[in-house]
Automatic annotation (TrEMBL):
It comes from Rhodococcus sovatensis. InterPro entries: Polyketide_cyclase/dehydratase, START-like_dom_sf. This is SRPBCC family protein. It comes from the Bacteria. CDD domains: SRPBCC_2.
Amino acid sequence: MAVTADKQVDIEADAAAVLEVLADVEGIPSWSPVHKKVEVVDRFDDGKPHHVKMEVSILGINDEQTVEYTWSDNKVIWALVESTQQKAQHGEYTLTPTAKGTHVKFSLTVDPKIPIPGFLVKKGTKTILEAATEGLRQQVLG
């Protein structure tokens, strides 16, 4: 069964600074404890990652996945291409300029291949949301 979660955070930096951190996908393991290894397979002409292989681990479940990124001035979207543990995944960051910086909305939908008990889903979701918002904020403000 697919699980969807989202969280929002305000970052005291402009959207370009936030996008710069998000585009540095190889650096994600330094601010997201879920990500163990990240490797860019190929890039768009502007240098932004297109297909990315990741090794992730959450609550003792290890996954090797490949995702495909789409980039715009105010949004980063990725979709699952293949995975050892998931049937589907869709994630996105939406950036909205504010008077003090950037409002970031993170949304993630994951559909695991095997059933996972609800309490583990809840715990894992909390870990992912914290890394994706507070981890990102701390990395941008670094």
